[in-house]
Design goal:
The structure is a single chain. The chain is α+β, with helices and mostly antiparallel strands. It has one domain (2-70). The protein contains 4 helices and 2 strands; from the N terminus they run αααββα. The chain has a two-stranded antiparallel ribbon. The longest helix is centred in the first third of the chain and has 12 residues, at 2-13. The termini are far apart. The mean pLDDT is 87.
């Protein structure tokens, strides 16, 4: 149930704008296009960066998803 909730909330909050192409995918296709990305986490200059290969078919959409997630405001204190 938690996995279904994560997929539903991700579709609602993050798959908008440039990432709209992933919003219409079936859960299995979304899993292979979004959650199973062959990326590397790199630490440089006190920052963490996620390196996504440009040859990945939905690389631009994945970058848009992460930008949408980063733009969500924190909850009020």
């Amino acid at each position: 149930m938690i996995a279904a909730d994560v997929v539903a909330w991700t579709r609602l909050l993050a798959l908008t704008g440039d990432a709209k192409t992933l919003a219409t995918c079936e859960p299995k296709a979304l899993r292979y296009r979004l959650w199973h990305v062959p990326a590397r986490l790199v630490h440089t200059g006190r920052r963490r960066r996620l390196k996504i290969p440009q040859s990945w078919p939905s690389a631009a959409a994945i970058v848009a998803v992460f930008a949408n997630i980063a733009a969500i405001p924190p909850p009020p204190a």
